[in-house]
Amino acid sequence: MKCYQSIFVGLLFLFAACGNPSTNSDSKNSDQTKVSGQDSKIEIVATTGMIGDLLRNIAGNKANVVSLMGPGVDPHLYKATQGDLQRLTDADIVFYHGLFLEGKMEEVLKKLGKRKPVFAVTNQLDKDKLIYIEHYGNGKKVPDPHIWFDTGLWLEVIPFVADKLMDQDPENAAYYKENARKHRAELLALHEEVKKQISTIPSGQRILITAHDAFGYFGKAYDIEVKGLQGVSTSSEFGLKDVSNLVQQIISNKVKAVFVESSVPRKPLEAVIEGCKAKGHEVAIGGELFSDALGSEGTAEGTYLGAIKHNLKAIVNSLK
Ligand SMILES: [Zn+2]
């Protein structure tokens, strides 16, 4: 593992050295930004679809934004492709999530950050607002990275991201500031909408069961109990015991529906459904939720707002 990682890092720097000789330690040199993009737009690379969407909203027509992780891609397990390395090398500015969401890429991104502006969007979040969970049962607590499920918390990354764009391209600072203000207002409205809709589910039925523990922030912000078959990272193991525990909880809480996730294989959750059936309890699949990735580009669910609205509708329709 370590060996692969060092080869990977080595390759990355090889690309960096060959591909972009103008890269230097002055990360705030906006002239450099202006000439490096073919159409003089800022070239932005984001890791997840959620971050890419946020950047598209704030950077508007002043940037080309590429998200490395497309629909159905699991960020916990994602490894950069050769093409990704080239995109990272060519980018003027790179945004990633941090909090170890990009488990297999974070070290590389941090190293790349010594050569160009690379930022974890969660960098300046109030640490007291994070949920801490036990990591791999070793007693060590780490932050749960899935903050985008609490839209009220996700919108707190906007000022940080806008600041970094303004540093990169001070000429258009007012434009970024205004876009950031508008997007914040949109997300705030969505946050209120989710709160309102979830509260219409009778409290005894307000249990969200998913493939992995991505929805902790959703549960905390919107007052709904959440349970995942797998842990907070999809790289964590789960066994028959976890399946039978979940089956037991579904039966004792008379849960009507469980939810598959677009970025996690559905087979393990199907085992839970079968387990319930064997004990005489019918539980339906309440729909597919966008958890760690957005939907296809060009569809409503390909945006953060659309994906959250899709999830909300599926959850409310199935549990109410
Ligand atoms: Zn996840």
Keywords:
alpha/beta; two-stranded antiparallel ribbon; binds zinc ion; 320 residues; globular; 10 strands; 2 domains; 44% helix; Rossmann fold; four-stranded parallel β-sheet
Along the chain, the helix and strand elements come as HHEHEHEHEEEHHHEHEHEHEH
Superfamily (CATH H level) name of the largest domain: Nitrogenase molybdenum iron protein domain
How many helices does DSSP assign? 12
Instruction: Indicate how many domains the architecture comprises.
Output: 2
The major β-sheet equals: 4 strands, parallel
Mean pLDDT across the residues is: 88
Low-confidence stretches are 1-37
Assembly state (oligomeric): single chain
* Ligand types: zinc ion
The CATH topology of the largest domain comes to: Rossmann fold
General form: globular
Q: Report helical residue fraction.
A: 40-55%
**Proportion of residues in extended strands:** 5-15%
Determine Rg (CA atoms, Å).
Answer: 21 Å
The level-1 CATH class of the largest domain:
Alpha Beta
User: Can you list the strand order of the major beta sheet?
Assistant: 2-1-3-4
Structural class: alpha/beta
Q: What is the CATH architecture term of the largest domain? A: 3-Layer(aba) Sandwich
DSSP E strands, number: 10
Distance between the termini: 46 Å
